[in-house]
Here is the input.
Amino acid sequence: MPWQDDEVVAPPGTAPPPSTLGGYAKAAGAGLINAGTGALGILGDTRDLYNALLEAAGGEVPASVKAPSRLTPTSTDVRQALEENVGPVYKPQGRVEEGIAKAAEWLPNILAGPGGVARRGIEQVAAPLAGTEAAGALAEGTGYEIPAEIAGGLVGGMTAPSVERVTRPSPIEPTRQRLIDALEQGQPPVELTAGQRTGSRPAEYLETELGGEMYQRRRAQQGEAATQRVLNEIGEQGESRATPQVLTRAEARIGTDFDRLASTAVIPLDQQLQNNLLDAVTEFQSTGGVAGGPESVMNLIADLAAQNGGVLRGEAYQTIRSRLGKWTRTGPPEIKQVARDMQEALDNAVERHMPAEHMEEWQQARRQWRNFLVVKDVMSTGGQEVGQGIIPLQKLRAAMEANRPDSYSLGRGELSELAHAGETFMREPPQSGTASRATARLIPTAIGAGLGGGLGSLMTGNLGAAGLASTAGGLAGAAAPAIYGRAAMTRPVQNWIAGQQPGAMSEATRRQLLLQALMAPRLFQEEGGQ
Here is the structure.
């Protein structure tokens, strides 16, 4: 039983008697009793702590503000009543028994919370208990033991889930994870930063403001890898810059493939082809297009078909496609669009009559051409990245919608997934976050300067050393952002950041705050209400 018996108790200042298994068991029982009395006296303990904080604030405290003194018992009252009726509770002897009693006192915290028993045992018992005991030992004799123990328990309790998130990051929403996989598991991989992966604005500001050269290098690597991925889709394998020479070569190669393959097909000017061409011209006219150009192409198609018994052969196809291609390169926007629509109608007709042995090549040429038109539109937008031959993924969406209005929203085409990923991850954080950007720089600066200032205050007896430490603090404050930023871009820290869920306070943090709030009144009572 966890009650005090006639065993010898060491006088103050002497070593305690050796512990036994019986002593360990009694210490555990005593800890559980403390937990029970703490639960029964939680309201009274909270009342006393509240009143003590009011008095510590100084000045006269009106009686109406104080909590009534004796409406509910404290844990001390409950324990005294228990001992009066049953006998004294066993007092643990030595550090080992004291540790066992403390662990048993925290043990009921394992009964509720997320995860299994092992996880709750670590996060809600072992880790906060270790933090409490360590902080209490450090603050012993200072008069601040209780605040130190509460803070130590909070830090210790939050450490366990943080360590877990390093090795097992928090789950990311499935749609976002699919886009991450599309970038990072493709060839070549586009490796995202932790801020991009999580969508956390503070993490993004930390990287952009403090990452310095390492962050810029990562973004440059992303741009080259993304450009290579896009150029692969137009048949330019291994190129990482969309230079004018690369795009000119791609256009000529795809055009040659079209002409060669179309020469193997005989294309009748059937009703479907006529309807598709007419739809393209009608759409052009309905948007305010000036009559003349598209109609002349329709007349040319009809004339060439009439000269060949109602069909278009390879040479005729090349003639028509050459004229439409010129419009797509040099015409105004409305002419470019109708030329592309008519070209699409013509290519659909070729595909309907393409010999089976050439079908795969033909479909590949069409895919590459559609993607080429998107790339060409992106590279005509200008900007620093474009000027360096980089294809910004975040610009793919607008170009896709300009060429095929439903391709982005319906997820059609080889570039669709890259375009969605670009919209989600590759945009720079908004410039409006001035406060967040300033905070990202201010925090490491203050930490570095504070360390030097603290050293200076500890060396007040030596003016030279104090001045040197203060100077070092100023230098540390200036250098801290760069050092902090470099650390933030290293893989271990990136993995840790990526393991944190963006947004409000985490569930684990809220749980630890609640746990410490429940334990604080009991700690106050154990210290005698001082």
About this structure: The two ends are 31 Å apart (CA to CA). Residues 21-167+518-526 form one domain. Residues 150 and 516 are 6 Å apart (CA to CA).
